[in-house]
């Protein structure tokens, strides 16, 4: 079920799975990624476990409000507000929140600023909100080199854009299984078909924050599950360990051979872990 939610001049495209009367779970994807970053199979598996699952296109992705490349004037806090806008649009008082990468950062913001709205938190391939200790390892040099090609990418050449995105997926992949190029190509084709301005997704790379969030992830009080790939090249697992170490009672799961990704092979296990975590959270 597709549904548009509009607030303060911003339209967010959402899609739901399962029965609306079931406990709600909102999935928040990472930077540059639309709702398609959440595999259909994962959404369906979570819905089959008795959850009402919602995924959505961030600003500048998919069918949500899109600004011209380089023309976005919003901050990360505005993307956190979008989460509450979606919950309000669906009439959901409290929800389980699942965030990946930047989506996990945003989810932590929401858990800190709107604790009454969040039942449980699952953070996948994320970094701690307002980390204030020794620097944590981040994006690999190979990925930085790849992103260096953005300045010369011809966005009018669909094949070139698809090839760039495919290489991004390849660099994100771990070694638990061979890279599934067929699956990646199919998703990328869907992403490009749903976007009028694919270049705009990279507006996320210039986002800033308005507030000082130093140390605030430690304020999170709801049950937290941290899931991290063992060989994540974007946010290495030290980031997940830092989150779990700073939040009382948090559970940490390190997935062997997994990168910054949700490959098909881990979907059954991931869905089960998320659903069990949600069921153990407060009612």
TrEMBL record:
Xref: SUPFAM superfamilies: alpha/beta-Hydrolases
Domain AB hydrolase-1: 23-262
One GO BP: glycerolipid catabolic process
The entry's keywords: Hydrolase
InterPro entries (UniProt xref): AB_hydrolase, AB_hydrolase_1, AB_hydrolase_fold
Record Gene3D superfamilies: alpha/beta hydrolase
Molecular function GO terms recorded: triacylglycerol lipase activity
Name this protein carries in UniProt: Alpha/beta hydrolase
Organism: Fertoeibacter niger
Organism phylogeny: Bacteria, Pseudomonadati, Pseudomonadota, Alphaproteobacteria, Rhodobacterales
């Amino acid at each position: 079920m597709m549904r548009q939610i509009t607030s303060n001049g911003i339209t967010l495209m959402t899609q739901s799975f399962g029965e609306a009367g079931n406990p709600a779970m909102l999935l928040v994807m990472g930077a540059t990624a639309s709702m398609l970053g959440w595999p259909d199979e994962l959404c369906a598996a979570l819905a089959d476990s008795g959850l009402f699952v919602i995924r959505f296109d961030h600003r500048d992705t998919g069918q949500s409000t899109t600004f011209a490349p380089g023309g976005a004037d919003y901050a990360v806090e505005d993307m956190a507000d979008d989460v509450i806008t979606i919950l309000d649009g669906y009439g959901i008082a409290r929800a389980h929140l699942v965030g990946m990468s930047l989506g996990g950062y945003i989810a932590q913001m929401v858990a800190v600023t709107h604790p009454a709205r969040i039942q449980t938190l699952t953070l996948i391939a994320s970094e701690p909100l307002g980390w204030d200790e020794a620097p944590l390892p981040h994006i690999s040099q190979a990925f930085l080199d790849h992103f260096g090609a953005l300045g010369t990418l011809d966005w009018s050449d669909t094949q070139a854009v698809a090839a760039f995105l495919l290489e991004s997926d390849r660099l994100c992949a771990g070694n638990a299984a061979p890279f599934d190029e067929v699956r990646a190509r199919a998703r990328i084709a869907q992403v490009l078909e749903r976007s009028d301005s694919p270049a705009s997704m990279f507006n996320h790379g210039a986002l800033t924050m308005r507030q000082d969030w130093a140390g605030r992830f430690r304020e999170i009080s709801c049950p937290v599950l941290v899931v991290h790939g063992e060989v994540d090249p974007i946010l290495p697992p030290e980031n997940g360990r830092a989150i779990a170490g700073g939040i009382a009672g948090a559970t940490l799961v390190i997935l062997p051979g997994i990168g910054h990704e949700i490959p098909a092979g881990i979907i059954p296990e991931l869905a089960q872990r998320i659903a069990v975590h949600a069921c153990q959270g407060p009612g």
